Q: What sequence folds into this?
């Protein structure tokens, strides 16, 4: 007979491999980063000294950081759009019609495509004489050539469309898993009661996949605030598409100012946590 | 007993080692990213040096560029730095200011006159030379003869104003954008034009001359002489645009022509080559000098200097350029070698390109602000580039854009 004490020990033993990896690769870097945010770090000899919040004071007065943070927060606009679209698409491919597997696969291909390759392709879509201009011109919607990634007023939204294309399949798969957990009887009963498709979607599907919605919005919010790869491959921060993590990268690897980069990273993390809390309040289970 | 024995053996071994070290000074030199492609060149070079210098043993170590600085700092701290290290120009200024590398004037001696003027200027900090200039490259112009003929442009531009006017003429007559020069480092363009960027700790790039210079680019952009996405153009994009006939001229490193040769044979057949013209700055565009420095604390700096002179003399540099096929010597005579000059009258663009670049090498300067001048280089460069882009693409008057960038720079420089 095992005591509950040894039971706990064994449980921790099983957790240990994962915990050690997470500790080394996640918790330690996060902790050290936070520590660095309050330090002057010298890359030459690895020494660091307390600097009385100088890094935070610096970025507080840095226009570039605030405009970068503004762009990262603006990027959140993509979250509701991509979530609703992914749920609708998941709903559509969640039936037993022939060929559905193909559609599911098609939506998922962008997810597994390397972002650098997708970036090259989309750079040609967005080129001023590229595919998008050509398409809109042949439809008669557009007259002049538009430098899609060069105009500060639209470039960031063009990146969002890229993110949408790249990410929708990922959330679709998560929603699909959520949808398949809904027993078909519920929907059948609603049909018998005369509920139309729209009503069934809002009254049955959405409430029943609420946990998945929470997970997906959370993931997509964090991804949006951390947007960086899209910017690197498509605009390099030109045309008002400079984002908060781009600032972090520039400070760390172009200025070698790791303390300031860490401080900026901490500010970004703060916004991530803040939004996560809000989302848990909105979509989480109310355990009153 | 055992311990005593071990100590004794240790002392003997150590004694031998020190005798050995005295007998033969090992000169380790580090290069960046050259192995294994150039193993043959370096093995031969090391053998030649060792043969000619009894008592000295050169040892080649290659590493990735991002390892050089941390390893060097660690080795200086540990008291056993290598004899020579391959640096770029910004690093030379950085380390010279820190006092972590030695001035090399005395070790260079008369050999100083062998190097091109621009190269020596690149590695001079506060009047002292801090590195042995090594390989370099420079931009040339490659042009589509058909398009230039159609536009009535007979010869390649000889100065920057001709470059501007020819561009306008080409686009006006043919409708093809004339060129897509890389604008990603506009500080370099100011230097090229002989215009100062920072003077006495203050940003000064909003003078009428600066405004007029940037205005030229704005006019070119407006007239369609540069493609709409010129600010996104880098090495690859420029080659692609030229190879597909979308621009009339390429303003790039000579090795780009090799890509035209393999990827766009019909364009290559009608390609002409010329020097990239110099402007008031008297600087050839597109250079990035590599060099060797002597770290502080190296055991025998004079011997290190000997190796430095050897690795960067005419003969070594020409041999290295032949091995790379894409780089150029930083010595005056090196660029006069038949290997480079043979192409001067050649109809083959790659050979002509080599000759054109070699002819520009004496003016080759690495056009960057030395590290340490800008307190927040990433943010300041970004500000300048954003304002320049707004000005050139016509979203803002040039004067207003430069004023704003200067104000932002000065606020940071003040701190």
A:
């Amino acid at each position: 007979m095992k005591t509950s004490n040894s039971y706990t020990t064994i449980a921790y033993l099983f957790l240990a491999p994962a915990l050690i990896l997470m500790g080394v690769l996640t918790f330690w870097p996060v902790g050290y980063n936070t520590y660095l945010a309050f330090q002057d770090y010298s890359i030459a000899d690895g020494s660091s000294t307390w600097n009385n919040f100088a890094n935070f004071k610096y970025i507080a007065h840095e226009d570039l950081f605030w405009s970068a943070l503004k762009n990262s927060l603006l990027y959140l606009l993509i979250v509701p759009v991509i979530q609703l679209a992914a749920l609708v698409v998941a709903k559509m491919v969640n039936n037993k019609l022939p060929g559905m597997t193909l559609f599911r696969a098609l939506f998922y291909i962008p997810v597994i495509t390397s972002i650098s390759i997708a970036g090259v392709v989309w750079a040609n879509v967005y080129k001023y004489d590229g595919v998008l201009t050509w398409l809109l011109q042949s439809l008669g919607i557009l007259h002049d050539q538009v430098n899609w990634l060069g105009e500060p007023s639209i470039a960031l939204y063009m990146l969002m469309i890229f993110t949408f294309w790249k990410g929708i399949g990922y959330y679709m798969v998560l929603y699909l898993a959520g949808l398949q957990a809904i027993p078909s009887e519920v929907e059948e009963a609603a049909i018998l009661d005369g509920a139309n498709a729209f009503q069934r979607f809002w009254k049955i599907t959405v409430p029943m996949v609420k946990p998945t919605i929470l997970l997906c919005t959370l993931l997509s919010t964090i991804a949006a605030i951390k947007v960086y790869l899209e910017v690197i491959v498509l605009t390099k921060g030109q045309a008002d598409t400079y984002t908060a993590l781009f600032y972090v990268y520039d400070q760390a690897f172009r200025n070698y100012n790791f303390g300031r980069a860490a401080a900026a990273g901490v500010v970004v993390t703060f916004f991530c946590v803040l939004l996560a809390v809000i989302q848990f309040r909105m979509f989480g289970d109310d355990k009153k | 007993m055992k311990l005593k024995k071990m100590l004794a053996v240790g002392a003997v071994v150590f004694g031998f080692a020190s005798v050995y070290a005295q007998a033969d000074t090992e000169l380790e030199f580090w290069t960046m990213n050259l192995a294994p492609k150039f193993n043959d060149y370096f093995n031969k070079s090391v053998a030649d040096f060792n043969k000619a210098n009894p008592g000295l043993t050169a040892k080649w170590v290659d590493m990735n560029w991002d390892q050089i600085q941390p390893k060097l700092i660690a080795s200086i701290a540990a008291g056993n730095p290598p004899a020579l290290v391959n640096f770029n120009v910004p690093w030379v200024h950085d380390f010279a200011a820190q006092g972590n590398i030695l001035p090399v004037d005395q070790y260079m001696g008369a050999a100083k006159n062998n190097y091109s003027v621009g190269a020596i200027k690149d590695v001079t900090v506060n009047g002292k030379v801090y590195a042995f200039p090594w390989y370099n490259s420079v931009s040339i112009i490659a042009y589509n003869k058909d398009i230039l003929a159609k536009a009535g442009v007979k010869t390649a531009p000889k100065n920057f104003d001709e470059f501007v006017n020819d561009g306008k003429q080409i686009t006006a007559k043919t409708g093809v954008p004339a060129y897509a020069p890389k604008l990603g480092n506009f500080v370099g363009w100011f230097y090229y034009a002989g215009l100062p960027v920072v003077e006495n700790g203050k940003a000064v790039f909003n003078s009428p001359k600066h405004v007029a210079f940037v205005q030229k680019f704005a006019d070119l952009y407006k007239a369609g002489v540069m493609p709409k996405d010129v600010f996104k153009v880098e090495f690859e994009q420029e080659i692609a645009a030229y190879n597909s006939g979308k621009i009339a001229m390429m303003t790039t490193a000579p090795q780009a022509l090799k890509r035209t040769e393999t990827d766009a044979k019909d364009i290559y057949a009608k390609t002409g080559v010329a020097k990239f013209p110099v402007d008031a700055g008297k600087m050839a565009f597109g250079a990035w000098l590599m060099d060797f420095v002597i770290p502080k604390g190296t055991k025998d700096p004079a011997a290190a200097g000997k190796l430095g002179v050897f690795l960067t003399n005419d003969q070594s540099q020409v041999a290295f350029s032949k091995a790379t096929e894409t780089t150029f010597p930083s010595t005056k005579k090196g660029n006069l070698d038949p290997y480079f000059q043979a192409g001067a009258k050649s109809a083959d663009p790659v050979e002509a390109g080599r000759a054109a670049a070699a002819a520009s090498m004496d003016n080759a300067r690495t056009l960057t602000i030395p590290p340490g001048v800008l307190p927040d280089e990433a943010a300041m460069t970004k500000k300048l580039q954003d304002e320049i882009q707004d000005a050139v693409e016509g979203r803002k008057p040039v004067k207003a854009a430069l004023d704003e960038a200067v104000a932002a720079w000065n606020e940071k420089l003040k701190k």
